[in-house]
Structures are given as C-alpha cells and as structure tokens.
Amino acid sequence: VLALVGAISASPVEIEKRAALQQVTGFGSNPSNTKMFIYVPDKLAAKPAVVVAIHHCQGTGRSYFQSTPYARLADQKGFVVIYPESPYQGTCWDVSSKSTLTHNGGGNSNSIAKMVTYALNKYKGDPKKVFVTGSSSGAMMTVCLPR
Q1: pLDDT, tens digit, for every residue of 18-41?
Q2: Residue 125 Cα to chain centre, angstroms
Q3: ∠ at Cα 40 (89, 50), nearest 5°?
Q4: How far apart are the C-alpha atoms of 111 and 101, rounded to whole Å?
Q5: How many CB atoms lie within 10 A of CB 112?
Q6: CB atoms near residue 64 (< 10 Å)
Q7: Who contacts 53 (Cβ-Cβ below 8 Å, separation ≥6)?
Q8: Chain segment 65-104, per-residue pLDDT in tens
Q9: Residue 136 annotated as catalytic
Q10: Is residue 9 scored above 60 in pLDDT?
Q11: Which of 16, 15, 34, 14 has its CA nearest to residue 25?
Q12: Where would I find the beta strands (DSSP E) of 46-140?
C-alpha cells in the first residue's frame, strides 16, 4: 500500500487552468451603477468578438455566467463575454426610462455600451463583431442598446 501511495504522489497531477469571471470597475461613465462582469478565455482570438449576455429578472451576472453556455463557447472560439448586472432590487432591467431609451442618456443601456467600449479597447476586439443576447428582461434590454 505504501508503494502505491508513493507512486501516486510521485506522479504530477495536472489541474486544468481555466479563466475566471472577473468584476470590472472603472469601465467608463456609469451613472446607473450597473455592475460589469467579464469572462476572457485563456486563449483569446486575434481581434476577438465581444458577446454581451444580459440576465433576466431575479438573475445576476454571476448566475447568468453559470447557467448559460457562453463562457464554454468563449473557451472554444476565443471571444470575450460581458455579463452586466442590474443595479435594481429584483434585478430587472430599466427598459423604459428616457435615460435608457436615449443615446448616451445615462441609463442602463449607456452603462452597457461603455462596457463594450472598454472590452473592445482592452482586448483589441473587432467592433464589427459585437453581439448582444439576453433572457426575459435581458432580452428586452438588447432592444434598448445603441446600434
């Protein structure tokens, strides 16, 4: 038994290293106090695409990261994923205020647009490959974002 334990402990154990979800502060103007979480795979493509994945009511950036396939796909394809998080109780998105529906109006849509600009600049992303997806309230927010 001791020889077996010695043989097992002598062999190197390979632990798969995987990128992690990170919170980003200071990504730009953020009057609505929307939180930014980002996933950048270990192997990033040249001029990567940026995908914005927006959670539903009662969700969070972290829960959407855990419950959707975008991070796994980012590992395969080398794109960046942004997971914004609503600052409101109940975590629904503001999809109807003048500030959100106005370009550079200071609402949630403006904060998310600043997140995209940050990611494009920091990771040398391709501005022609920015995609937005979401569920429920998050899907409604996709309609509010500037084009």
Answers
A1: 799 999 999 999 999 999 999 999
A2: 14
A3: 75
A4: 12
A5: 26
A6: 24
A7: 64, 65, 68, 70, 81, 82, 83, 133, 134, 138
A8: 999 999 999 999 999 999 999 999 999 999 999 999 999 9
A9: yes
A10: no
A11: 34
A12: 50-54, 80-85, 130-134
Are the C-beta atoms of residues 44 and 123 closer than 8 Å to each other?
yes
pTM confidence score: 0.87
Q: How many CB atoms lie within 10 A of CB 97?
A: 15
Helix (H) or strand (E) holding 9: helix 2-10
125: left (phi over 0), alpha (psi -120 to 50) or beta: beta
Residue entry with tokens 């940026």: 50
The answer for residues whose C-beta is within 8 angstroms of residue 40's C-beta and 6 or more apart is: 19, 22, 74, 80, 123
- Candidates 96, 109, 136, 137; catalytic one: 136
Please provide residue 117's backbone torsions phi and psi, each rounded to the nearest 5 degrees: -60, -45
Measured distance CA(31)–CA(71) in Å, rounded = 28
Question: What is the C-alpha separation between 32 and 34, in angstroms, rounded?
Answer: 6
- Say which DSSP state 62 is in: H
Computed over every residue of the chain, the mean pLDDT equals 91
